[in-house]
Model the fold of this input.
Amino acid sequence: MRPPRPVNLTFNRRLHGPVRHYRANTMPPRRDLSDPVQHSSMPRPSPARPGLSTLPPGFAVQQRIQISTLRALLSHRNHQGAWTVFERLRLADANLVFPTDLYLDFLDLLRGDHTVFDPPTAPDHLRTLQRLCDDAAHHVHQDPDPDLVHDLLVQIILGYCLAGAETAAFQFLRTGWPEDAKARSTDVDPIMQRALVTRDRQLAVSLLKFLHNRRVPPSPRTCVLALEIFMDQDSLMDVDILMRYFARVGYRLSPGRCVKLADFYSRHQNEAQVMWAFEQCFDQPALVPGKKVRWWVLIFCRMKRFDYAWKSYQYLREAQEVPDKHMMAALIEQAAPKHVEKVHQLLDDARRFNLMNPIVAVALANTYARLGCASPLTQVVDDILNRIDQFRAEDVGQLIHDLSRVQLQTHANRVFRAAVHAGVALPTVTLQMVLNHLAKRPHFGLLSFFMAAWSEGRLNLDPSVAFSLFGHLLLAQERHDARHVYAAMVDEPSGWWHREAAAVMRKLVDADAFDLARDWYQRQRQAGPIPEGQRAVCDLALQAAAAAGDRDLLATIQRDMLAFGLPDRGATSAAHLRVYARRGEYNMAADLLRALAVNGSTSLRSSTVPLLDAVLDPLELATQIEPAVNLLTLGCQLGFWPSAAGLKTLTVRIRLHAKYGAVGEAMVRTLESRADLARLPAAQTFTLYYLAHCQRYQEVYDRFRRYRDIDRAPLAIDCHVAFILAGVRLGRTDEAVRVLHETFSAGTFPLRTVFIRAIHFTWVRELWPVLEVLHRLLDDQGMLYHHGGSPCYTALIRAYTTKRDSSAVAALWHKLRRHLQRREVQLTHCTVSVLIDACRLLNQDYFDEVKAAVQSQAIVFNLSNFIALMEYHGARGEGQVALDLLEVDMPALGITPDRKCIQHLVWVLRQTQQEEALARLAAYVAKTNRPDVMEWWQHSLSTELV
Done:
């Protein structure tokens, strides 16, 4: 029995486990052994094959000398020469028995010192290591020393794992480990570590089963590694088994492991296990670092357990740790609305630790907005504005986005303006969002602010942002500024606008900017032939020419389409038909329809060609309805019909205006004659609304049930509106409500929309008994006292105001005020305008109460609210107060009065004959010098409207 050899325990850099390095028994070197051993009688080695010259041909050197040579090479860490000698010996004698310590030294060299592996040749060395492990595994049982055998077994497993062959390591552990060899729980740690790297759950389970079959209890490290694997693979059952084992043996997890375990169980909504991990972590609070406490706060906030989250936060504060911004935001969101005092404390802590960054600021702003605390909300935004130059542009953009997302557009507008004034280079996505969410609200005056900042060089607009600004300016009738943007961007270097030529043309057509549309088409045709992919430019240009009545441009486009090889798919015919309809030339339009029916292509009768949509223009303009209806009837008889969008337009007209109901009979007959059309949602909606308009409620009821039984799918919302109206008129209210509840969940947006649109339908046609039934249904459904109840109040108050029922309006207001005081309903701008109009039209005396409710809800007046307020004061003979609102209050909030505002104010001042106020208004209009307002003002003077 040889004496025990000294063992050096070190820490392996890759496997993170204990590794034994053995000192080799070597011969004293007589020469430089960095190369293979050389004898005086032997030739010098070949540089291409180091190590081969140490053995003469025919393997004539004694085995002992060769083993000594191999040891010498290993002692000098010459792994290449050692492997060459080893391989030569193995090839000469497959049954040659190497000493166990030689295997240990060789494995130690290849596995322990990673610096010998050059990156280009690392795969070769790993393959060498695996082959050496295979050879050692084949001869491991030949040494009588059980300690050396066990050490070699462990080294073989480590070698396999380093070589990336964890499956071979487990196979050796299961089949190659001798039955009489001792086994320890730490022997499987390297394989478990590799299983953690490769996320191999099946291998981890197999290792635990191996230890169980060997009756070897797993070590804590083995269990922790397995726990990491199971949590990473989201294996709840395996984690539960390990946790039961930990409880049985009394093993305590570290604070870091407790946090990971709690995070895992919180995702699975297992509160009991989360609390067990929490108690394990805080039994020894001195060992819990501050970072782990932050994780506990986030976990409990996710579980909506604010009490434990606050307890963890207090522990962190007692340890004098600085809070984290994500932790503060989570605590603030969970504190409301039950712990308002803690929200104020968190605000103070955020200011103390300089944590007023966008994440915390948005959480505070959102929380105070939900609580209805106007003053703290303004203070939070003011804190941000005072330090906005210290924020990154991305953070400011995120803050603006989040404020808009939680319906705090007024404060988002303030932040945006402050950022521009501070010179913050906001990202393109933020500018797009500001235009999409804030520019739609005229009271913000953002379009003029955008134009001023861009003209002064404070905003650098991307072509896509300039395109959005251009579209918003067109919709707002700001033609002068829109032309300025068009002139600046039409020849911009990147060519973005020309690549999006069809989108630009659509903006121009939708805004009736026909002169710019003509110019844009001329630029496109001068740039070269318009390809098939851009034929929408020609189609839209045809629409613009038809809407403008420009027959010269219409003829030019037709010639260009022939020259460019673009087939006519009905766009030119529709354009000619639109020209005739808009000019009132219905006889020529009828002749064109008859000619198309005889000689036209079959594609003109497809639902993709909106040929009859051109006839809808006179209907939308409310001019010459009877001849337009006759032309529409003729088109239906000839096999043409409007598009789905055209049907939807007619449906909305019928719902909101009773005089448009006459267009329905011919359309219903046409839709019923075509099975493919009758199943279109737009066609079904149109048919039901027309029948409801004609008070044919039994047919509405029967058709609705038939549509639902045929398609077996939810119908459109407007179909349910017609159905509930029919149910009320037929005395089947309960059955109709039951059908609605089968389709829509109680209190949801679609169900509320059904009732609101039904109310609109009733007060337009003065169906007051139906209105009272709908009012009762809304009350019974509980839709007047939840968060979305304000639109329902708006519809009912507007309807009863039209009915001139002051008692019903007063009762609704008092009920709404009680819900506002209990914070069950959120007041909206639309509701405020309707309430002010009701005070004006019905001489109600609760105007001061409405103003108090607006202030308590922290609502900032928008343009519609100011119009309603000016009409209220003007109707009471307080024209000077109305003008003070126009000249002082609106500019103070950044609201730019538009032409509609001036028109309403002129109308109410003329009705009350306040000449002094009219003269002051004339001076204001002359001072503003806005082209759209001045144009209307001059026209009003010429027609003696002013």
